[in-house]
Structures are given as structure tokens and as C-alpha cells.
Design brief:
metal-binding, Rossmann fold, glycosyltransferase, Glutamine Phosphoribosylpyrophosphate, subunit 1, domain 1, 30% helix, magnesium, iron, glutamine amidotransferase, single chain, 19 helices
């Protein structure tokens, strides 16, 4: 691993998984749709920090502006004022398929055979990308290029290509009704031609997507917090298996698949903003309740409950309420440390986590601490944190985690590490405790997490905790670069995934396609990015 990747392990908060994307769409004649989209993306920035883009249509043509970086880095007043129209699609990206390149920034754009434009933004991850790539190759008649253009390497790109290929003959709406049932995996989509805004959500509703009302139009967004920011009132969630079309004729709803809800449980734990609501349940209230239940499931005598800011804060408040132990701020977070592309010196690398978190020594010294965090993925951040708290004078450090152990990779749009890197995959709780150096370690139970969400267990995807994947995965040759070996060879775990031949011991040599699309599932490229 390069020194740059070492820095990623140590400095960046790798205990927190990264969600793939946030999408935003607005249809509002007479409004400044580019600026509305800019603010909507600002509210969704936590869902992706690699790239941002906005596409705007004025009814005759579509203009796309996108680049690598944060929303505030990509757009300025001059750019936004040049994006004029009545309809816009916005996107923030954190890649789970495809590398970090300009081509892979979204919204992705295609021109149909009739010359109209089609733009698309996608949150989620498909599991039949290889099949879709073969369809695209068959359409173009060439194996590796499409019309000789420089092409992106994402599942979103393929969906846009397939939509554009058939829209010229039958229209975008009908093309979507035919294509969407063939997409397998998690997808919340916002897409548009020059006239109409579309929104669609996979039949399992793995990733969130909501519909909001403006005085002069409509908004779709990944989270309700984005509706709040732009002054839209929440209407409802886009239903699993539903396609919405919004244009001058109003709003139309079609069903392309029977709903089988499997909302992502990790949205409640970490991914969504605390001021968002999912399925009618406040994310903040869920996290506080998780902490309260955690205090009952894993009590310990201590002097102070402190969060790992910011994601551990609501659960720490709940733990303090449930235990009667005072809540305090023992760590200060630097809000301005994001992803770094500067090669560090050895001296700076040794600072590690201190670039992001620094202890309040007068609060910590001589105390028995309960530290509440949202999750443990690799364990590097918690290890550094425990060491830092002890150096600051903590007598005891008891770690409490507001999610069950993350043992399985996500194939539906979360950038977790590969199976081999998930610390809880190869170690039991005591092993993880020793690994991070805590005095005690406890996680919320899966039952406790589900109860706090107030959702029926049957309506949640908990695959990263229990390995029960609700959407069947493809055969191993199309599973990705690293994940097959991790799924079948990790000690002490029997895959509950239908991976043909995997149960009979060592599968032998793993055949991995060289194609950048087919070989980039879930978090397969998690360590390959800067």
C-alpha cells in the first residue's frame, strides 16, 4: 500500500463508510432551478464528496456542468447564472463503481437518435451491470467503445445509454417502463429529457427518494432535509417500484414492479442526515433511541459519556439519558478537514487522527469514559482514538457502537471495505476489543437497532450485519475484483449468498473480468482510490 493510502487509512475517518450518491431533481417553471438544485445538493453533500454536477433544460436544449470536488468548489455564481431553464437534475457522487474521473461525475448525458438529450443521476448500485454492458455492446456493435467517445465506467452510464437507445422510438417514459424492471440491485434515479422530470426507485426501495412540492413546481431528492433547504413541503416517498413523470401536464405515477420493501438499515445508523425522516421516522430520534437501548443492553460504570463527533452524537445523548451517566464533549472536531490529495510528510502522517479530532484534556483527565460511535469498519480510527484518549489521561475507555458488527460488504450502494478488511469479519467482539485497545466493547444488537427504527424487520435490508442479501447476487465471475475471495474464504463464516460452487471449499483460481464496469461492484475498489 502506498504512503498516500496509508494516509487515507489513518487520517480520513475510515470508520465511517461512504454512501455512493445523492440525487436531486426539480421541475419549476419561473424558478431559478439551477440555484435550487445547488442548495439541494449542498444539503446532500454528506452523501458524496468526490464530484458534483447539475444539468438544466430550458425546453429546447440541456446543459450539463459537472466536475470533481465539493458542491461549493464546482459551482460559483457565474456558472449557476449561465444554467437557465425550468427543469434541473443534480448529483453528488462518492463512487462505488467506476473510478474518480471527470467522465464518471454525474449527471450522465446521452443524445438520442432524434437529437434530444437525456440526463440521469443515480444513487445505489446495480448487481447485473455485466449484463447491461453486454446489451450496450450489442447496441453499438463494438465490444469496448460506444460511438468512439470517451466513456464513463459506471452502471449509471449504462442505464442512461440503454434509455437513450430506445427513447427515440417509443419515448423516455415507455423506455423507462421497459428498462427499469430489468435493473437488478438498488437504484434511486432522477432523470430528464428537455421537457419532463422523471424519478424512479427500485422495487426494494433500498435507497431513499422523496417527492416534495414547491409553490410553482415539484422536487425529488434523496433526503427530506434537501426539501427543507429549498422550501419544499414533503409530499411522500417515491414508492418502491414506482416511476414518476412530472411535466406541464402535471404528475403521473406508474408501477414498473411490485414493491418488496427492503430499506437500508444503515441509513438510520450513519448515512442519512439526522434532520431527515425515513418512512415517517426521524433519523435523529432513531439514533437517540439506539443509544438508549444500547445503555440497557451494555451497561458499564463510568463518569462521562462522550460521542465521536458528529455521527456518534445522537446515540451518545441516548446512552447518557438511558444510563443516567452525564453526557459531555470530550473531543473537538475540525469541520474543515475533508478528503486530502496532498502527499504528507512522515511527521504529518504521524499526527493521524489529530487532524480531525483533538481531545479536551481537562474534560478527559482522570475519567472513566464511555465513547459512543456509529460503527466500526476497519477499526483504524477507533484504535487511534482510544490511544489518544489514554494519552490525554483517561482512566478507562469503554467503546459502545450504535450498530451491530459490520461483517459483510454492501452490494447496494455503500462503500464499505472488502470482506477481508472488515475487522468484525475475522474477529469476534473480544478480538475487536483487543485490536482497538478498549477496556470494553459492545455493539447494539440487531433486534435493538430494528426496534429503534420502528420499521418491521421484513422491510429492512440488514445484509451488512447478517449476510442476508435480499437481492440475489450474480455468479462469482461477475461479482468483482476482490469480493469473491473474501466471501468464500473468510474464516468462520458461511456465505448466505448464492455463489455457485463456493460452498465446496477453495474455489480455485478466480476469474475476474478486466472490464472496468463488470469488475467494480460495491466497494471492490475501496482501496484503489485516492
Amino acid at each position: 500500500m502506498s504512503s498516500h493510502e496509508d494516509l487515507v487509512d489513518e487520517i480520513e475517518d475510515d470508520s465511517g463508510p461512504h454512501e455512493e450518491c445523492g440525487v436531486f431533481g426539480v421541475w419549476a417553471p419561473g424558478e431559478d432551478v439551477a440555484k435550487l438544485t445547488y442548495y439541494g445538493l449542498y444539503a446532500l453533500q454528506h452523501r458524496g464528496q468526490e464530484a458534483a454536477g447539475i444539468a438544466v433544460s430550458d425546453g429546447r436544449r440541456t446543459v450539463v456542468f459537472k466536475d470533481l470536488g465539493l458542491v461549493s468548489q464546482v459551482f460559483d455564481e457565474q456558472v449557476l447564472s449561465s444554467l437557465r431553464g425550468h427543469l434541473a437534475i443534480g448529483h453528488v457522487r462518492y463512487s462505488t463503481t467506476g473510478s474518480t474521473t471527470w467522465e464518471n461525475a454525474q449527471p450522465t448525458f446521452r443524445t438520442t437518435a432524434t437529437g434530444s438529450g437525456l440526463v440521469l443521476g443515480h444513487n445505489g448500485n446495480l448487481v447485473n451491470t455485466a449484463e447491461l454492458r453486454e446489451e450496450v455492446s450489442a447496441l453499438s456493435g463494438r465490444q469496448d467503445t460506444r460511438r468512439g467517445e470517451v466513456q464513463a465506467s459506471t452502471d449509471s452510464d449504462l442505464v442512461c445509454e440503454l434509455l437513450a437507445a430506445t427513447a427515440a422510438d417509443i419515448g423516455v417514459e415507455e423506455a423507462a417502463m421497459r428498462l427499469l424492471p430489468r435493473l437488478r440491485g438498488a437504484f434511486s434515479l432522477a432523470f430528464a429529457d428537455e421537457q419532463t422530470l422523471y424519478a424512479a426507485r427500485d422495487r426494494h426501495g433500498v435507497r431513499p427518494l422523496v417527492l416534495g412540492r414547491l409553490e410553482r413546481g415539484w422536487v425529488v431528492a434523496s433526503e427530506t432535509a434537501a426539501l427543507d433547504i429549498v422550501g419544499a413541503s414533503m409530499v411522500r416517498e417515491v414508492e418502491p417500484g414506482e416511476l414518476l413523470a412530472i411535466d406541464a401536464d402535471g404528475i403521473r405515477s406508474s408501477r414498473f414492479a411490485a414493491p418488496e420493501p427492503k430499506g437500508c438499515a444503515f441509513e438510520y445508523v450513519y448515512l442519512a442526515r439526522p434532520d431527515t425522516s425515513i418512512s415517517g421516522r426521524s433519523v435523529h430520534a432513531t439514533r437517540v433511541e439506539i443509544g438508549r437501548r444500547l445503555s440497557q443492553e451494555a451497561p458499564i460504570e463510568a463518569d462521562l459519556v462522550i460521542p465521536t463527533p458528529e455521527s456518534g452524537t445522537p446515540a451518545a445523548i441516548g446512552y447518557a439519558q438511558g444510563s443516567g451517566i452525564p453526557y459531555g464533549q470530550g473531543l473537538v472536531k475540525n469541520a474543515y478537514v475533508g478528503r486530502t490529495f496532498i502527499q504528507p510528510s512522515q511527521t504529518i502522517r504521524q499526527l493521524g487522527i489529530r487532524l480531525k479530532l483533538n481531545p479536551l484534556r481537562d474534560v478527559i483527565r482522570g475519567k472513566r469514559l464511555i465513547v459512543v460511535d456509529d460503527s466500526i469498519v476497519r477499526g483504524n480510527t477507533q484504535r487511534a482514538l482510544v490511544r489518544m484518549l489514554r494519552e490525554a489521561g483517561a482512566l478507562e475507555v469503554h467503546v459502545r457502537i450504535a450498530s451491530p458488527p459490520v461483517r459483510w460488504p454492501c452490494f447496494y450502494g455503500i462503500d464499505f471495505a472488502t470482506r477481508a478488511e472488515l475487522v468484525a469479519s475475522g474477529l469476534d467482539v473480544e478480538g475487536v476489543r483487543r485490536s482497538i485497545g478498549a477496556d470494553t466493547l459492545s455493539y447494539i444488537s440487531l433486534d435493538g437497532l430494528i426496534a429503534a427504527s420502528e420499521q418491521p424487520r421484513t422491510r429492512l435490508c440488514t445484509a451488512c450485519f447478517d449476510g442476508d442479501y435480499p437481492i440475489p447476487l450474480p455468479e462469482e465471475a461477475r461479482l468483482g475484483k476482490h469480493l469473491l475471495e473474501d466471501l468464500v474464504r473468510a474464516p468462520g463464516h458461511t456465505p448466505s449468498v448464492d455463489v455457485s460452487g463456493a460452498a465446496s471449499g477453495d474455489p480455485g483460481p478466480v476469474s475476474v473480468p478486466s472490464d472496468p464496469v463488470a469488475a467494480s461492484w460495491g466497494a471492490a475498489g475501496a482501496l484503489d482510490r485516492p
